Amino acid sequence: MTLVLPESLRDVEAVTRVATPARLEYDFTAGRATTTFLRGILEHKILGEACPICHKVYVPSRGACPSHGVPTSEIVELAGPGVLVSYCVVNVAFHGSVMELPYVGGLIQLEGADMFLMHLIQEASPDEVRIGQWVEPVWRDDADLEATLESIRYFRPLDRPDATVDEAGHVVSWGPATRGGAA
Amino acid sequence: MLRAPLVIEYPFERTTGPVVGAFLTGLRERILVGITGADGRVIVPPIEYDPVTAEDLTELVEVGPGGVVTACAWVARPDARQPLDHPFAWALIRLDGADTAMVHVVDAGSPDRIAVGTRVTPRWRDERVGAIGDIECFVIEETS
Questions:
Q1: Cβ contact B61–A12 (<8 Å)
Q2: Using an 8 Å Cβ cutoff, are A123 and A95 in contact?
Q3: Where are the domains positioned within chain B?
Q4: A54, A70 in Cβ contact below 8 A?
Q5: Which residues contact B6 (CB under 8 A, 6 or more apart)?
Q6: Higher pLDDT, B11 or A178
Q7: Among A1, A9, A19, whose Cβ lies nearest the Cβ of B33?
Q8: CA of B56 to nearest chain A CA: how many angstroms apart?
Q9: Distance between CA atoms of B57 and A4, rounded to whole angstroms?
Q10: Taking residues A42-67, what's their average pLDDT?
């Protein structure tokens, strides 16, 4: 197929790309459970909620236990430290990113929680980050706390023996693996 | 209950293909082009395939710059996302030499100045990038 252009367009550089940005503006209502979580953040607390039937602790809670369909009515304050159950070393910049490459995004099971939180891992070089590693939150100064997970600036390694994480990515032992018979 | 604004932006960029690319190139050069369909009708904006026979279309032709309104809708209270900050019309405009109409903005001033049959002409931006917004809007053609 050969395109026949009008004479006026034969000697000009052709447009081949066009920007078509999309912008969606929402007014986000956090809901009961997320509001509880974010108000906790304002007080330097990480609040989870427990299912009254299975006692699993969700953080941040969505307000109901997905297994039992009942409200997560009991509020549980978590200490902060947790275990890295998965992570990703980001080597490619994406549009709008302000992070210096490479950096690590981690999936963290906080001690006392039964689900994972995604957050940045810093103060650790990407090649020393590992599954099972203990990490702790680094908060903004109290005066700068806002109702956002960004009030926790990142998580950093904690000097504690690695936990044991199973192949499905759950912490099965919060301490080092014990091997039968080994000292 | 906490509430907050949440804004999501996607910085999409598309490749145009040669036919739409030619239309956008034309806009940048202040030239409007359509494409000749299998039955000889001129389609604006140009499309790659004939809408009836599906065959490749290849013959781009200049149209306009003036045209005639074939339908219009008055926007009395434009919001911030709309192309003009004062009341205007969205209109279907059949450019001179074209057999189809395309949508654009007409800065008509008041709704009683625009109707089916009103002649309009493009107001070009000074800085053009090869996009439909290179025509800031159409304005009502001066009658001499």
A1: no
A2: no
A3: 17-140
A4: no
A5: A25, A26, A27, A28
A6: B11
A7: A9
A8: 7
A9: 10
A10: 95
Report the C-alpha gap between B129 and B25 in whole angstroms: 8
B139 vs B105: CA distance, rounded Å: 9
Which chain A residues are within 8 Å of B14, Cβ to Cβ? 17-18, 20
Contact between chains at B31 and A9 (C-beta distance less than 8 A): yes
CB of A106 within 8 A of CB of A155?
yes
Asked whether the beta carbons of residue B10 and residue A13 sit closer than 8 angstroms, the reply is no
Query: What's the rounded Cα separation, in Å, for the pair B124 and B65?
Result: 11
Encoded amino acid at A136, one letter: E
Contact B11 A96 (CB under 8 A): yes
The pLDDT, as a whole number, for residue A169 is 83
The domain segmentation of chain A, as residue ranges, is 31-168
DSSP secondary structure string for all residues of A119-143: EEE-SS-GGG--TT-EEEEEEPPGG
Per-residue pLDDT of chain B in tens (144 residues, 90 and over written 9): 899 999 998 889 999 999 999 999 999 999 999 999 999 999 999 999 999 999 999 999 999 899 999 999 999 999 988 999 999 999 999 999 999 999 999 999 999 999 999 999 999 999 999 999 999 999 999 876
Half-sphere exposure of B87 (CA within 13 A, CB side): 12
Q: Which residues of B touch A96 (CB under 8 A)?
A: 9, 11
Which of B2, B25, B47, B129 best probes binding to A when mutated, by most A CB atoms within 10 angstroms? B2
Distance CA A117, CA A58 (A): 10
Q: What is the pLDDT of residue A182?
A: 37
Looking at the predicted structure, is the pLDDT value of residue A175 above 90?
no
Tell me whether residue B19 is exposed, middle or buried, using C-beta atoms within 10 angstroms of its C-beta: 0 to 12, 13 to 18, 19 or more: buried
Are B31 and A32 in contact (CB < 8 Å)?
A: no
Tell me how far the alpha carbon of residue B95 is from its chain's centroid: 10
- In angstroms and rounded to an integer, the radius of gyration of the C-alpha atoms of chain A is 23
